Automatic annotation (TrEMBL):
Enzyme category, top tier: transferase
Protein family membership: Belongs to the MGMT family.
EC number: 2.1.1.63
Keywords carried by this UniProt record: DNA damage, DNA repair, Methyltransferase, Transferase
Gene Ontology biological-process annotations: DNA repair; methylation
GO MF annotation list: methylated-DNA-[protein]-cysteine S-methyltransferase activity
UniProt superkingdom: Bacteria
Protein name: methylated-DNA--[protein]-cysteine S-methyltransferase
Organism phylogeny: Bacteria, Bacillati, Bacillota, Clostridia, Eubacteriales
Keyword DNA repair annotated: yes
Organism from which the protein derives: Acetivibrio thermocellus AD2
Classification via InterPro entries: MethylDNA_cys_MeTrfase_AS, MethylDNA_cys_MeTrfase_DNA-bd, MethylDNA_cys_MeTrfase_DNAb, MGMT_N_sf, WH-like_DNA-bd_sf
Location of the Methylated-DNA-[protein]-cysteine S-methyltransferase DNA binding domain: 80-164
Pfam family, one: DNA_binding_1
Catalytic activity: a 6-O-methyl-2'-deoxyguanosine in DNA + L-cysteinyl-[protein] = S-methyl-L-cysteinyl-[protein] + a 2'-deoxyguanosine in DNA; a 4-O-methyl-thymidine in DNA + L-cysteinyl-[protein] = a thymidine in DNA + S-methyl-L-cysteinyl-[protein]
């Protein structure tokens, strides 16, 4: 059985949908974002302990602090490469960003290869099913462009602003 629960975010953000297999958090998306709608059919809405932990984490985060724990999560179809990218995202501190290229360089060095594709990193970042907690919003383009956020650019901007980033250094792509 798959379970869902909704989280009411503070003003300036879309509300969030979380999913669970009953024990682990399996998804966290901004409502209406890419990927969210395909995960809510045939789900039972129920407040589970893992959702309570996730709500506590989100409450701390949205109060302007960096939570000191991560709710239990499980990600399906997790390849070694995706795990490496997630591990790098989890290392990005609250209020900081990294580029796709910077993450690619770290992974290439760890693997002992000359280089790694930043586009491959971008695909893995975009695939992330647990936003904010696994901070894909902190990954930006090489020219500080705020591209590639499945939760919507407005939410990415709001999250980076919420973390007190200097927004003057970022560019938002024109539609």
């Amino acid at each position: 059985m798959i379970y869902k629960y909704y989280y009411k975010t503070p003003d300036g953000f879309s509300d969030m949908l979380m999913t669970s297999d009953g024990e682990y958090l399996t998804g966290l998306w901004f409502d209406g974002s890419r990927g969210a709608s395909k995960h809510i059919s045939d789900c039972e809405e129920k407040l589970l302990p893992v959702f309570e932990d996730t709500i506590k984490w989100l409450d701390i985060y949205f109060s302007g602090k960096s939570p000191d724990f991560i709710p239990k999560y499980r990600i399906a179809n997790l390849t070694d490469f995706r795990r490496e990218v997630i591990d790098r995202m989890l290392e990005i501190p609250f209020g900081e960003t990294r580029t796709y290229g910077e993450i690619a360089k770290v992974i290439a060095k760890k693997r002992g290869t000359a280089k790694m594709s930043s586009r491959a990193v971008g695909r893995a970042v975009g695939w992330n099913p647990i936003c904010i907690i696994i901070p894909c919003h902190r990954v930006v383009g090489a020219n500080s462009s705020l591209t590639g956020y499945g939760g919507g650019i407005s939410n990415k901007v709001a999250l980076l602003r919420h973390e007190n980033n200097d927004m003057s250094k970022f560019t938002v792509p024109k539609k």
